[in-house]
Amino acid sequence: MTSVSRLLSDFSTMWRAAENWEQFTWNLAGLGIRRPLATYLCHVFQPDAKAPLPDAESLFRRTAEVKVNRGTLLARLELPRTSLAEDYRKGVAAVWPRPDLGYATVIALAPSFVWERVVLARLASAPPAVSKPTLTQDALRKLLVAIEQKLSAMRLRVRKATSRRWVVSNRRRVLASRIDWEDLSLPEAFAEARDEHKWFSSIKFEMQKADERPTGISALVSRHGYLQTGRTCHEFFALMAPILGDVASERYRALSGRSRADTPGHKPRPLAVQYDQPFFRDKANNARLISAVRRVPYFGYTVVHANPYVHVMMTDYVDGSSYDIYVLEESRMLLIPQIRATPGSLDRLLSGLSVHFPEGRLVEASAVYGE
After folding, report:
1. Domain match, 142 and 110 both
2. Domain C-terminal end among 125, 151, 167
3. Is there a domain that residue 150 lies in?
4. 153: helix, strand or coil
5. Residue pair 159/205 in contact by the 8 Å Cβ criterion
6. 8 Å CB contact between 164 and 198
């Protein structure tokens, strides 16, 4: 048995022996993991309030790369034979339903390739049964600030960041990705992002003592709604995971209750995407928005108007949700959910748009226009 296989076996043993989540994470914090393995954690929500929270069987039973025993919360992950070595193709994932918090926690010990190709791929195809909220720029900031505030004797330093921003290529403005290796405080990192008009995709941070001595504890937070660490520690589970749950829950609540079928008098509950600059003064950005609309996966669209104002009708082919998008002002986009609009669908729409179009600040339209 290789050292990686032994670690995966130890993870499974700890899971089965634990009587509760706290006991499991406390034991896991002492597990000395090694590359290529890392610990990943995210929270998933059940849009149907009457349905039970998902477990490993319901999440992974239709996934070819997963072996899960019926009625258990543990799944073994394994990619088919490829050019990758065996240690890079195996992992294990556990799902812990947490009804008191309103979500289920997915935790995996796996190489990054397995996490992305198996777990994230499965969660991406799981709607409308489950929803994993993405994290906006503001949500990433709230998450990291909350973690730092909980660490009274430590500070966070941003060491690496992947981001997207507008660049000019062949006389066209396009969104390009970049990686920066940095040593910045949280205020410095987000101030730089604001000044350079860039949006973070992921941030790797390190815990540092008040006297600036390193602790050796680091983690990564992704806008796809998960945390990752290469070294398990109690702070990761007892502090970071609950804060991620709070931020994800806030996002999920903000997108919930938007279906006109469920509102009094079937009145719409629109959302506004606010930009700090008069972004749509440049009418070329109307065309860029429509181009981004065309590239949102699993959505159909009809462009009603493109210039001087924008009106697009969109339909989610996954769960039948539908929306109208308007651009009527220079610094604001209006999103109006129709008869059916699930939080998972809204999240996928906004996330899909932000891959190819600048991310704005999501606010209640009633706060801008009144009731």
Report:
1. no
2. 125
3. yes
4. coil
5. yes
6. yes
Same domain, 24 and 94: yes
- The Cα–Cα gap between 301 and 179 comes to 33
pLDDT at position 136 is: 92
pLDDT tens track for 33-90: 777 889 999 999 987 777 788 877 778 776 666 776 555 667 788 777 666 777 788 8
The reply to whether 228 falls in a domain is no
Report the pLDDT value the prediction gives residue 228, as an integer from 0 to 100. 94
Give pLDDT tens digits for 241-263.
999 999 999 999 999 999 999 88
Distance CA(68)–CA(271), nearest Å, equals 40
- For the chain, the first-to-last Cα distance in angstroms comes to 64
Domain boundary among 89, 105, 125: 125
Indicate the SS3 state at residue 59.
helix
pLDDT of res. 90? 85
Does some domain include residue 251?
no
Same domain, yes or no, for 15 and 121? yes
Where does the pLDDT of residue 196 fall: very low under 50, low under 70, confident under 90, or very high at 90 and above? confident
The single residue listed with the structure tokens 């939080």 is 343
Torsion angle of the four alpha carbons 126, 25, 252, 152, in this order, in degrees rounded to the nearest 10: -150
In a domain, 131, yes or no: no
Same domain, 121 and 149: no
| pTM higher than 0.85 | yes
Q: For the chain, what is the largest distance between any 2 Cα atoms, rounded to a whole number of angstroms?
A: 66
Task: For the chain, give percent helix, strand, coil, nearest 5.
Answer: 35, 35, 30
Rounded to 10 degrees, the C-alpha dihedral 296/297/301/303 comes to 30
For 116-168, the pLDDT digits (tens) are 988 888 888 777 778 889 999 999 999 999 999 988 778 899 999 999 887 76
- Rounded distance, CA 299 to CA 301, Å? 7
Bond into 47 cis (ω within 30): no
Q: Count CB-CB contacts under 10 A for residue 156.
A: 21
Print the domain residue range for 329: 260-369
Distance set, CA 154 to CA 94, 185, 206, 212 (Å): 30, 12, 10, 8
Number of domains in the chain: 3
The answer to whether the beta carbons of residues 319 and 128 sit under 8 Å apart is yes
